[in-house]
């Protein structure tokens, strides 16, 4: 099964990326995921179910420990034609 995760961490700071946002980027880029898109207003990554769920676990734990006060995420199951 392939999954897509979309997430944001808060609080936002348009002047300088907060520590929790940098940690989120590190977690997602270090995971064995593909189609990673990291941006200032949202982040998306795709991969196998085990890889995505492992990355989400690490993302939640590490960004909360780094000062995130809110994490919004959505996980979708991808069909064969989705990419």
Strand order of the largest sheet: 2-3-1-4
Radius of gyration: 12 Å
Largest sheet: 4 strands, antiparallel
Beta-strand content: 25-35%
Look at the helices and sheets and give the structural class.
Answer: alpha+beta
State the helix count: 2
Which descriptors would you attach to this protein?
35% helix; 83 residues; 35% strand; four-stranded antiparallel beta sheet
Note down, in words, how this protein is organized.
There is one protein chain. The protein is α+β, with helices and mostly antiparallel strands. 35% of the residues lie in helices and 35% in strands. It has 2 helices and 4 strands. The chain has a 4-stranded antiparallel sheet, with helices on one face. Strand 2 and strand 3 form a beta hairpin. The chain is elongated and about 40 Å long. The model has no long low-confidence stretch (mean pLDDT 91).
Write the layout of secondary structure elements.
Layout: E1 2-10, H1 19-30, E2 34-38, E3 43-48, H2 49-65, E4 70-78
Antiparallel strand pairs: 1-3, 1-4, 2-3
Briefly summarize what is shown:
The chain is of the alpha+beta class. 35% of the residues lie in helices and 35% in strands. It is built from two helices and four strands; from the N terminus they run βαββαβ.
């Amino acid at each position: 099964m392939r999954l897509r995760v979309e997430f944001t961490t808060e609080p936002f700071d348009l002047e300088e990326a907060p520590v929790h946002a940098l940690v989120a980027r590190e977690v997602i880029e270090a995971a064995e995921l593909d189609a990673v898109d990291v941006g200032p207003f949202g982040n998306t990554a795709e991969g196998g179910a085990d890889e995505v769920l492992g990355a989400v676990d690490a993302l939640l734990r590490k960004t909360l420990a780094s000062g995130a006060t809110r994490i919004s995420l959505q996980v979708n199951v991808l069909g064969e034609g989705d990419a």
